[in-house]
Specification:
The structure holds two protein chains of two kinds.
Chain A (H helix, E strand, L loop, with lengths): L1 E10 L2 E11 L4 E5 L6 H8 L7 E6 L7 H4 L2 E4 L12 H11 L4 H14 L15 H12 L6 E5 L7 H16 L3 E6 L11 E6 L2 E7 H6 L5 E6 L6 H6 L5 E5 L7 E5 L5 H10 L4 E6 L4 H8 L1 H5 L1
Parallel strand pairs in A: 3-7, 3-8, 5-6, 6-7
Antiparallel strand pairs in A: 1-2, 1-4, 8-9, 10-12, 10-13, 11-12
Helix pairs in contact in A: 3-4, 3-5
Chain B lengths: L7 H20 L2 H24 L7 E2 L2 E2 L2 H32 L2 H6 L4 H29 L10 H29 L2 H15 L11 H7 L3 H13 L9 H32 L6
Antiparallel strand pairs in B: 1-2
Helix pairs in contact in B: 1-5, 2-3, 2-5, 3-5, 3-6, 3-7, 3-9, 6-7, 6-9, 6-10, 9-10
Classes of the chains: A alpha/beta, B mainly alpha.
Chain lengths: 309, 278
């Protein structure tokens, strides 16, 4: 349903997106994950036909998304609040946009009421949009994106700044659309939300694709160099042990277990060297296990150079 | 998947949606609406007192009838109002949508660019003639100005050619706003300059002879002059035949340039990826 083939986008001399390949079939949610400035919004705008690629091809529903016929079937959910007529009520805003999608006034009203209920805005439906909170405006944007029950949904930071319950509800709406066969591209910075929500993920860093594949595969890519250790002599002061590991590793308290420590290995350091250092401090390693690979570690690893700036 | 209309019929109903939207917005600004009507009355009174100071001997003749200043300026203001929609409102409406953040959402709907352009000002296209009607009623009813009733049809023909002509210029301005963001100021200046230099408020004969000759070629000046010749001088179709052809050709050229400008601006914005920037 959504295809991008070797897509690049330059703004002047700056390359914002480079060599992007993407294929999102119906019924799947593809997350675009990356820090600020990674090129997520630019990719979404190209998929929505609002920006043309400098190189490469974008196809949505087998056509150019810039064409009206194709655009009619794309649900566009932008990240900003400012996309409504502030003097009009939320309901009237939706009715207006529904009519621009070709619905009669009656159908537009019915569909609007249906969606307002879905996004839990029935009580605020007749309030001017200018009185809506950030979260309410987000929900209104999502309702507008779902007006035509589109087979393609392009969603930019839909849960950004939302409270956990609202964010969960928004994800449930998108999951429902995806389960009904919609192809969804979902840009986010929130790592935790892609697990058990998205099927595939593209990790971006400075416009480059750092990873593309299944979410589970991304987790496996985490190259952890962090270990959980338990000491035989747990009373040895942490600073004393740490002073024997200078240049080799760093030690920190485990965030959840009082009897364990986290060991962060320096580049090229062998574990045996670290164990010897611990013994010099008068303690002994009872157990050592690699800290569980985490999606966050994978993300941080893949976008490491961006985060160093 | 709900049907998402892209057909011609739905494009017409989209215009109604724009009208409905703007009426709802207007209802949320009731005071502004009343202020506009009051402003119209004050404008009529102002020009009435200006007319008392104008020496009738300086006023031009149309079809053997010397125009009163009130009749002269009344036509100038009435036509000028349509020029303001064509030239200024398209531009300011696009700019307004850009600032409000709704332009991108409008473009994401399967609506033709031309429907969007018309839709953004369709309410004005209904309101301004009504407003002009109120103005002319005040001018005729309160200040005793008389227009030739038999000249209404040719005068309307002039108006119907005048509107697409200025509309084309407005689209050119809209293209400039999309491209340069701050084009609205330039367009406003051009609109004011055209109003003054086309004889909306005073006869062009008062200007230096060479300048008058050049300005008289402006299609806007031609439209103003033709409307006055019909409504004040009672001239008919035959007498303004040449002016109608001139205005028709100007309208075609202007619309062609305007449509090209908007299309080029939208394509450029897509290429640049800056449609929502303002």
């Amino acid at each position: 349903m959504i295809e991008a083939l070797d897509v690049s986008r330059d703004f002047g001399s700056k390359t914002v997106v480079s060599g992007l390949d993407l294929e999102v079939p119906g019924g799947t949610i593809h997350a675009l994950l990356g820090p600020n400035g990674a090129g997520k919004t630019t990719i979404l705008r190209m998929l929505a036909g609002l920006t043309s690629p400098t190189e490469g091809t974008v196809r949505v529903l087998d056509g150019d998304p810039a064409l009206r016929e194709i655009r009619a079937h794309i649900g566009w959910i932008p990240s900003g609040d400012r996309s409504f007529y502030l003097r009009l009520s939320g309901r009237e805003n939706l009715v207006f946009f529904a009519r621009l999608y070709g619905m009669s006034l009656r159908t537009a009203r019915e569909r609007t009421d249906e969606l307002l209920e879905k996004v839990d805005l029935v009580e605020a439906a007749r309030q001017p949009a200018r009185l809506y909170s950030h979260g309410m405006q987000k929900r209104l944007v999502i309702a507008r994106g779902l007006l035509t029950d589109p087979p393609v949904l392009i969603v930019d930071e839909a849960t950004h700044d939302l409270d956990p319950v609202s964010a969960k509800n928004v994800r449930a709406l998108i999951t429902e659309a995806s389960s009904s066969g919609a192809a969804v591209v979902w840009a986010t910075q929130r790592l935790e939300e892609i697990r058990s929500f998205a099927h595939d993920v593209t990790v971006l860093g400075r416009g480059d694709v750092r990873f593309s594949g299944g979410v589970d595969e991304l987790v496996k890519r985490a190259l952890s160099r962090t270990y959980e250790i338990q000491l035989v002599n747990g009373s040895t002061p942490l600073p004393l042990i740490a002073s024997n590991l200078v240049g080799l590793a760093e030690l920190s308290e485990h965030p959840f277990y009082a009897d364990r420590l986290l060991l962060h290995l320096g580049s090229g350091t062998a574990l045996s060297d670290v164990f010897q250092g611990i013994e010099r401090a008068g303690a002994k390693v009872h157990s050592c296990a690699e800290a569980r690979s985490d999606i966050e570690e994978a993300f941080l690893h893949l976008t490491a150079e961006d985060n160093d700036d | 998947m709900t049907n998402a209309g892209v057909g011609g019929t739905s494009e017409l109903s989209k215009l109604l949606a724009f009208v409905r939207r703007d009426v709802l917005v207007l209802l949320s600004y009731r005071l502004a609406f009343l202020a506009d009507i009051a402003n119209l009355a004050f404008q009529s009174v102002t020009f009435y007192f200006v007319s008392l100071m104008v020496n009738p001997a300086t006023m031009p003749e149309y079809g053997g009838t010397t125009a009163s200043y009130m009749a002269f300026v009344g036509i100038g203001i009435a036509f000028g109002a349509f020029m303001q929609i064509g030239l200024g409102r398209v531009v300011s409406a696009i700019r307004n949508e850009q600032v409000l953040g709704t332009l991108e959402s409008l473009f994401m709907t399967p609506t033709r660019p031309l429907t969007l352009q018309v839709g953004l000002v369709v309410y004005d296209l209904i309101y301004v003639p009504a407003r002009t009607g109120i103005f002319l009623t005040i001018v005729m009813g309160v200040f005793g100005v008389r227009f030739d009733p038999g000249a209404v049809a040719p005068a309307l023909a002039v108006l119907l050619l005048f509107i697409p002509m200025v509309w084309g210029l407005g689209m050119l301005g809209a293209g400039a706003v999309l491209t340069f963001r701050r084009g609205g100021g330039i367009v406003g200046f051009v609109g004011a300059a055209v109003s003054v230099a086309s004889g909306a408020y005073f006869p062009l004969d008062l200007l230096p002879e060479r300048l008058t000759a050049i300005l008289a070629l402006s299609p806007v000046a031609v439209a103003f002059d033709a409307a006055r010749r019909t409504l004040i001088g009672g001239e008919g179709w035959t007498e303004i035949n040449g002016e109608l052809i001139y205005l028709g050709v100007s309208a075609i050229v202007s619309l062609a340039i305007g449509l090209w400008a908007v299309r080029a601006a939208i394509l450029r914005e897509r290429r640049m990826g800056t449609l929502s920037h303002y």
